[in-house]
Amino acid sequence: xxxxxxxxxxxxQADEFEIAVPSPPELMKRRAKSHxxxxxxxxxxxxxxxxxxxAPLLAPFDPYDQDLTRRLVQPIWHPxxxxxxxxxxxxxxxxxxxxxxxxxxxxxMIGFFAAIISAVVGSTIGMMGGYFGGRTDNFIMxxxxxxxxxxxxxxxxxxxxxxxxxxxxxxxxxSFLFWDRYAVVTRSITQQIxxxxxxxxxxxLGASRTRIILGEVLPNVMNQIIVIASLEMAVAIIIEAAxxxxxxxxxxPTPSWGLLVSEGRSFMFFKPYLIVLPGVAIFFLVISINMxxxxxxxxxxxxxxN
Length: 306
Fold this sequence. Notes:
It contains twelve helices and no strands. By secondary structure, the protein is mainly α. Helix 3 (36-53) crosses helix 5 (96-132), helix 5 packs antiparallel against helix 6 and helix 10 (209-245) runs antiparallel to helix 12 (273-300).
């Protein structure tokens, strides 16, 4: 009787000290709440997204409305600035705050869709080469080597000069520039994954190749795809701004942050806010996207990085 009582007491104590293992979604929530980079970067990106979506409602003026009687009005922090135009006006009297708000639509749209399209194309090509191997892999490696041998920015300048600088054209051109980076990474990881036991088990059970690639390989490379996408989205925004600055990207009067910098360079010594404001917007958006991407990588990492 004494032995049974002692055994029950030990079992109760073991139950009391049993540690509950959190589920993967719960673990990700905990990491997200404690990841400063993800919180800061995600907050800025979310703010920019809200501004871009609701720009027609939030902008105090029409970004295309010109009024030469109010040209080059100083921003609010200048002694002569007014709250009517908090960020001042440009050389044609257009409200600068409104143009910056509408410019966020162009940057986010081009960066997001260019990253998504290149991710789909490059990841598909990379996983096919890594899984099938043989001639398929050799052909895909040939395509990757050809793409890596091309000077990206020069190719972008050439294509934009031929096809124009519309938003659709820029998205397609930038997607063409970035797919190889996804292909290289996903191909390498897929080659490591395809020899694992769970892939062999899926093949033994009769799963199709498409089912194995989408159901077994893709979830294991998604973490790396997200990291590359965040980097490429930021790079796409910078390249779009550079092309617009050179006059080959978004054409006036469409507001684009790179175009705003280009239009303000004639007044950079007298009205520096014309360059500083869109430049600061580009800087914060790009670095916030990178911080958010690094945070997503750490939060979703299976090895438990913090």
